[in-house]
Every structure is written in structure tokens, then in C-alpha cells.
Design goal:
- With 386 residues, this protein is an alpha/beta fold.
- It has 16 helices and 20 strands.
- It folds into 2 domains: 102 residues, Oxidized Rhodanese, domain 1; 236 residues, Ribonuclease Z/Hydroxyacylglutathione hydrolase-like (Metallo-beta-lactamase, Chain A, 4-Layer Sandwich), CATH 3.60.15.10.
- A hairpin with a 7-residue loop joins strand 6 and strand 7.
- The longest helix is centred in the C-terminal third of the chain and has 16 residues.
- The protein starts with a strand and ends with a helix.
């Protein structure tokens, strides 16, 4: 069998289907440690640098498994993976593929999952495995509303075309710091209305419609409601959206295994108090409403359908130690005990998302890679120490 390219979507499907293969990542150890392929099941993985294959080929070959093993190779931009694939083929390996587009194609992959099979509307979760992030799309009749789209704007335009609908609105839950948002570009390309909270976007160089707390920005009277619910704390303008009184798109406020960290703006004391009040409001919400988070820490947060969607009551039990805190002082102490240093690129990403700084595509790709760091949890803090 000749060496062959494979797509990020194929890699995801192999990971989900627990196909028997070994993933060989030929980036350097630093880049591999910062960001690697992860899926819902354990992936057999080996990190051997492309430069090692160039300099000590025989020693690298000795580290490889049996020559009949299916090997899938990942690198930064594709070329190095193809080069290593050719070395393995030359050395007798019979089933070798390389990732098209390099690791960035994995980082940009979006997987649509239908969440509402029993409704007269279609609510989709767009899982971004390479980022540990989730965005959403709500279709009713021939209209599509997007929530927190990424910069992979062609995906959403193609998705709308495939579903026979038009993107009429695109909405941001807050001014994102961990990835470059796509709402502004999608609005320009599609004519969709761009909605955002002025508390976050007031200084942005973007034309947008201001969200108002309690408003319904949904469809015609017979369509599902989309209630605006201001939920400050992660950022001053953090906003949740309650869909049909059944689902709540939470952005970075409620996570399945944590809550949103309030320190990214450098105002941990002030924002922690605001977040504590928001958590109090969340406690009063219907526990049957399904939480749809903006991020996840690990795949063990997914349900049996591999969606990141759980009833609020279950989320509160998972995070019982957080929701049990009954005063601002203890809450602030919890936040400070679980803070991590935010990635340096977050400051630039915020400026890009406010259209206050322009970057080229290559720089945008670099900024956009890597898992999110938006949760405040003991688990996430512990991960930083590893």
C-alpha cells in the first residue's frame, strides 16, 4: 500500500471508532507538549521528532512498532509528516498515512452533532476537538442562528448551504480570549446580523446590535425562543442564551466540570464578586435545563452520544464544592487557589476579536492553536503542574 494523505475528519472518525492505529507526531517535544491530538478514547501515540528522522533514522525506526501496524503521522504543516511517511515506506512499513494540512487542520476541525432530534427545530453543537471548544447553530425553517462561531467561516457557510438555510444572525457569548471568533467575518460574508453585549464590545471597531437582558432574539412567534440572559463574571459582558426553555448556551460561565475563570481581564477581585452573584442566579434556574458549554476540559465530560450536554442539576452535583460556597470571601479564595497563568497570546486574541489589531492568516493560525484555558477548577490547576 502506497503512503496516503488523510483528513482531520477521518482522524476524528478513527479515534471515535477506536480503530487500531498508532499516531506518530513528528513535531518537537515542546510543540507536542503544548497541543496534541486528543479524542474520546485512548490513542496509541508516539512523539519522535522529524529532525531525529533526518539525523538518526535507524534509531527512530527501532522505536517503531511492527511494520504491519497502521501508522498515521502528524506534523506542523504536512510536509514533514509526508517526508517521514516516505522513510517508513522505504523501511518496509505497509500502512502509512499523513495528515493533510498538518496539525492546524486538526485544530480547526468542527464536528456537528444534532442535540434536538425530537424538536421541530434543529440545534447543533459544533465540537472543536483540537481546542476543547463548542459552538452552536439553531435552525428553524430556512433560518440559521450561530453562537460563538470560529474563524473557519467557510465551514458555516457550507453547513448552511447543505441544510438549505440562510445565516440570519450570529451571536457572541462574550469577547473571546482563547480563539479568534468568526462572527464579524460571517456577518460580512452572509449579511447576517451580528449580536453582542456592549459591556464586552463597547470599545470594539465592529458594527453590531446590542443585546438587551431578557430580550428574545429568536425566530417568528411560532419558532423556538432564544432568551438573552446576562451572566457577567467571566467577562463583564458574558451572556447566556436559553433556547426554547430547554437548553442554555452558557459560553464560558457554566462548564460541565468547572466554571469560567474571572481573572483573564486582570481584575480577579472585582470580577470574582460579580461571578459569585451570577452563580447564585444559576442556582435558581430549572435543574432540568440542558447545559451547553463553550468549552470542555476532557472527553469524560461528554455523554453517551459524545455530546457535551448535561442537565443543570447534574452539572451542579459534579461541581458541588463550587456551588456550595456561600460567601464571596471563600469564593474569591477558591478562584485564587485555582488560577493559572493565562497564555500570552490571549491579550492579542482579544484585540483581534475586537477588530483593534489585524493579523495575517499565518499569525491567526498560530494564535488559534492550543487548548483553552478558560476554566477555574482544581483539575485545571493540577494539569498545569504536570
Amino acid at each position: 500500500m502506497a503512503i496516503f494523505p488523510f483528513s482531520a475528519d477521518e482522524l476524528y472518525q478513527w479515534a471515535v471508532g477506536q480503530e487500531n492505529f498508532m499516531l506518530l507526531d513528528v513535531r518537537n517535544k515542546k510543540d507536542f507538549g503544548r497541543f496534541k491530538v486528543e479524542g474520546p478514547h485512548q490513542i496509541e501515540m508516539l512523539n519522535v521528532s522529524y529532525f531525529d528522522f533526518m539525523e538518526i533514522e535507524d534509531e527512530c525506526i527501532d522505536q517503531m512498532p511492527d511494520k504491519t501496524t497502521s501508522i498515521r503521522i502528524v506534523c506542523a504543516k504536512e510536509g514533514s509528516a509526508k517526508f517521514v511517511a516516505e522513510i517508513l515506506e522505504k523501511n518496509g512499513f505497509t500502512d502509512v498515512g499523513y495528515l493533510s494540512g498538518g496539525i492546524k487542520s486538526w485544530g480547526n476541525l468542527l464536528v456537528p452533532k444534532l442535540l434536538s432530534p425530537d424538536a421541530d427545530y434543529e440545534l447543533y453543537q459544533f465540537i472543536r476537538p483540537g481546542k476543547g471548544s463548542c459552538g452552536y447553530g439553531l435552525i428553524y425553517n430556512d433560518e440559521l442562528i450561530l453562537f460563538d462561531p470560529t474563524r473557519s467561516t467557510d465551514f458555516y457557510l457550507d453547513f448552511a448551504k447543505e441544510k438549505g438555510c440562510t445565516i440570519t444572525k450570529t451571536v457572541e457569548t462574550h469577547l473571546q480570549a482563547d480563539y479568534i471568533a468568526g462572527s464579524r467575518i460571517i456577518a460580512d460574508k452572509s449579511g447576517a446580523k451580528f449580536y453582542a453585549n456592549a459591556e464586552d464590545f463597547g470599545g470594539a471597531k465592529i458594527d453590531y446590535l446590542k443585546l438587551e437582558d431578557g430580550d428574545d432574539i429568536g425566530f417568528s412567534p411560532d419558532g423556538p425562543s432564544v432568551q438573552v440572559l446576562f451572566s457577567p463574571g467571566h467577562t463583564p459582558g458574558s451572556t447566556m442564551f436559553v433556547i426554547d426553555r430547554r437548553y442554555v448556551i452558557t459560553g464560558d460561565i457554566i462548564f460541565i466540570k468547572s466554571i469560567g475563570r474571572p481573572d483573564l481581564g486582570g481584575k480577579v477581585d472585582e470580577w470574582s464578586g460579580v461571578l459569585f452573584k451570577t452563580i447564585g442566579n444559576i442556582k435558581a434556574m430549572d435543574e432540568e435545563v440542558t447545559v451547553l458549554p463553550g468549552h470542555y476540559i476532557d472527553w469524560d465530560e461528554a455523554n453517551e452520544e459524545l455530546n457535551f450536554a448535561r442537565p443543570l442539576g447534574e452539572v451542579k452535583k459534579i461541581n458541588e464544592s463550587i456551588y456550595a460556597i456561600d460567601n464571596e470571601v471563600d469564593f474569591l479564595n477558591f478562584i485564587k487557589a485555582n488560577m493559572r497563568e493565562q497564555p500570552p497570546e490571549y491579550a492579542t486574541i482579544r484585540l483581534v476579536n475586537a477588530n483593534l489589531e489585524m493579523v495575517d492568516d499565518e499569525k491567526a493560525e498560530t494564535l488559534d492553536l492550543g487548548k483553552n484555558e478558560c476554566a477555574a477548577s482544581a483539575y485545571a490547576a493540577a494539569q498545569q503542574q504536570q
